[in-house]
Amino acid sequence: MDNNWVNIMPIKGEGLMVSDSPVFIRLNYDTLTTTAGGYPWKDSLNGSGGMMPTFIKPGHFPTTGSAHPNRRAKTDNVYVEVMTELSYNPFGKSGSQQAVYSIDTNTMNRTLIAHVPTKYGQYLHSFGVSENYVVLPLNLKMHKPAHMGEDMTMISAFADGWDGIHVVDLEGKVQIFQTDPFFHVHITNTFENETGIVMDLGTWDTIPFSPHALATASFLNKTSRDEKNYGNFVERMHLHTAGPLKGSVTRTRHSKPGRAIDFFKINDKMNGLPYCVFYAVEWMHDDKNYANMAVLKHNMCTNTKTYWSKNHSYPGEPFFIPTGDAEDGDKEKEEEGLLVFTSLDGVRGASDFVILDAKTFKEVSVVQLPVHIPFTAHGQFIPKAGIEAVKAAMEVEDPILAATIDTTFQI
Ligand SMILES: [Fe+2]
User: Fold this and answer.
1) pTM, to two decimals
2) Ligand 1 centre distance from Cα of residue 311 (Å)
3) Under a CB-based contact definition with an 8 Å cutoff, are residues 358 and 340 in contact?
4) How far away, in angstroms, is 299 Cα from ligand 1 center?
5) What are the structural domains, with CATH classification, of the chain?
6) pLDDT exceeds 60 at position 410
């Protein structure tokens, strides 16, 4: 049970499939085929299969990476990514390091921002990037390597690895913020204000990647899955870099105890910038049943929540598709777009493709798909492939569908 190829980073004309690994796999959008081997980075060391950039510290080897490279605000082509480096020499002074680097998707050059010394060999599924900072909540470590004959799944190796919140600026300078330990999986958004950095994220009291609901036996056991309370919250953390609270972290919870919320999505135009709205999947929506699920729209500015849910319908991660021509950070147009996701219709035994107007949260269209699509997974919209699909759909002889698509998509 690993977290394989769960996300796609767009590069020129194709996608790079990413996992919690330093390896990136090329995905051809037209054929949906992958190229064998890792992406052939220009700066990779000979024989490393693309895994080892020239900036890796001598005597180090790469272990994990993040499945969520994060686009730097107000750029189209600069992504920030991390890689955990360990020393070959267990007694060496440089020990564990978190390499923070940028990827220019125009030139496909990788540039080191900082080598951040860490207490453990950290595991970072996701991290925050604002205009001027990279925010690394260090809370999970790889406890032990898997050995033949043991449980070799990645999640069996996770352990508490709290090492504070490391903040890296553009010059590579590191500040460490301490707060009560927490675990996280996904970041909602990270941005700056007058006194510091604001990071919204899902926090957990217990290791979120432990087998709990991800293990089939537990997942299928209604009593077991309904009893569990993972101490999961949506939290806003304010890392004070200035003002009277400088150096401290202020935390506020923005979700109801007992509910589980994850798979955050925002309008990507707001990524790294002050924003209001995130979308997410919510379990325990009725406060009783784990499998009672909803898609949530949460406006953090007005503290209002709007839901889409249906009986026996189990949604996957929503994706926001902007329909306007907004520039990065345009709050006026933050909600101008569509929210799309698949939802498994338990009665029909197949998935629906649901399109909502993000502003009103009303259904624009629900397309019944002929197959079942697994629902505890990330969802992603590829603009090029989407446009091709829309063009193809408009050629079908269905005037109602064609009219819906025509008014929905600007192609
Ligand atoms: Fe993820």
Assistant:
1) 0.90
2) 26
3) no
4) 22
5) 7-254 (2.120.10), 385-411 (no CATH)
6) no
